[in-house]
Amino acid sequence: MAGSIAASAFLPGSPAAAPPKSVLGERPDSLDVRGIAAKPGSSSSAAALRAGKTCTHAAIPKVNGGSSALADPEHDTMSSSSSSSAAPRTFYNQLPDWSMLLAAITTIFLAAEKQWTLLDWKPKRPDMLTDTFGFGRMIHEGLMFRQNFSIRSYEIGADRTASIETLMNHLQETALNHVKSAGLLGDGFGSTPEMSKRDLFWVVSQMQAIVERYPCWGDTVEVDTWVGAHGKNGMRRDWHIRDSVTGHTILKATSKWVMMHKLTRRLARIPDEVRTEIEPYFFEHASIVDEDNQKLPKLPDIEGANVAKYVRTGLTPRWADLDINQHVNNVKYIGWILESAPISILEKHELASIVLDYKRECGRDSVLQSHTTVYTDCNKHSGQTTLHCEHLLSLESGPTIVKARTMWRPKGTRPQESIIPSSS
Which UniProt keywords apply (predicted)? Predict the structure, then answer.
């Protein structure tokens, strides 16, 4: 009771609590400050209540922007009777609604925490990509570029491993991203800004790759690439592909590049301005050691080797086979070369190494034919059969597009040094 009286005194406009009924259901006329029923005829109790009410109204100003003048008891009686139908006011419903503001602040903090988590993301397992988004990064003081690739389901072949074309596409992608990361990507396919001004672009003249093993679906490979000088008017680009988890070598490759004029389609010398652009990125390190890398490695002379020839004709490039320089992408040539390889080799052997010697470019309207000569040799000591193939891709009109050498090993065997092509 004392709490109800105190609340009604300090919260103007709120109705006073109803006095409790007596045991017989009758309501006392008045209560003194101690909650004891006063006598009806007690004038002193009524005077005390009026005095207390007057002091309370004088001490508490009106809320809701009202005047701070002293309240009139008679006026309060009229106003209380006129507002008796309004909703009762309490201490709690006069406070502002903070729930919306607290919800907005919580949302902001959660969004900020999520963004900070993404920026500060680090791999928790060694098999997770170091390069989160696969864009690659410069390493070795800016002289080498590294990028990770995950082997997709559409990049594997019938034997459930990545194809040689897949690995070659990874080489090409890292080469272009290397140029882009260095800020040297011009308008052409790997051309620098100075090359684009002069309508020059790079074309590959020779490529050599040695495959130690083929990754499977879901594997992550780490590709390193760098460039170096090759003669007076050429450039060398090397690659090294490793398993990102074990660090084991998957493929090593090297290539030679020369410049061609976009309009005349003839080879051109490297301008001094272009040389100034690319020389700061030269890194003289060979992924494949070759004493005489000027020539295409020749097949060894095999006494008593069985020789068989296979031909595939009527090969034509599709629109999707052309790059932005309007000639057939060099990776496509590998697929055409293997078109003439017998199916028995593809089923029981895997490509261990390949060397390609590019003679001329292939256009959209070209019609080609693929020739493969298979040299089969049986090792008398190990009893293992080794396959050496010579390939020729040419236009049906006669000119040679690409010459190639391939060496094969039986599937499931470890790579051996004897299957690596050597220069003569």
Answer: Chloroplast, Fatty acid biosynthesis, Fatty acid metabolism, Hydrolase, Lipid biosynthesis, Lipid metabolism, Plastid, Transit peptide
Predicted local distance difference test score (pLDDT) of residue 32: 45
Compute the distance between CA of residue 91 and CA of residue 73 in angstroms, rounded to an integer. 23
Q: Which is catalytic among the residues 325, 330, 389, 391?
A: 325
**CB within 8 Å of 160: residues ≥ 6 apart:** 216, 217
Within a domain: residue 171?
yes
Given the residues 330, 349, 362, 388, select the one marked as catalytic.
362
d(CA 379, CA 84): 112
Place of tokens 């390939």: 391
The answer to whether residues 163 and 220 belong to one domain is: yes
* Structural domain boundaries, residue 176: 137-281
pLDDT value at residue 226 = 97
CATH number of residue 381's parent domain: 3.10.129.10
> Which among 199, 223, 197 has a CA at the least distance from the CA of 137?
223
What total of structural domains would you count in the chain?
Answer: 2
Contact 209, 225 (CB under 8 A): no
Write down the pLDDT at residue 256.
95
Same domain for 221 and 340?
Answer: no
**pLDDT tens for residues 188-214?**
677 899 999 999 989 899 999 999 999
Adjacent-strand bridge partners of 204: 257
Q: What angle do CA 246, 252, 255 make, to 5 degrees?
A: 155
Residue 317 lies in a domain: yes
275 plus 144 within the same structural domain: yes
**In-domain check, residue 364:** yes
Concerning whether 327 is annotated as a catalytic residue, the answer is: yes
pLDDT of 94? 63
Strand blocks (E) in 7-113: none
* Active-site residue, 55 included: no
Q: What is the largest CA-CA distance in the chain?
A: 142
- pLDDT at position 389: 94
Residue that is last in its domain, among 263, 281, 299: 281
Selected catalytic residue, list 170, 230, 240, 327: 327
Active site residue 93: no
Residues 263 and 316 in one domain: no
Q: Does 406 fall in a domain?
A: yes
Residue 265 sits in the same domain as residue 336: no
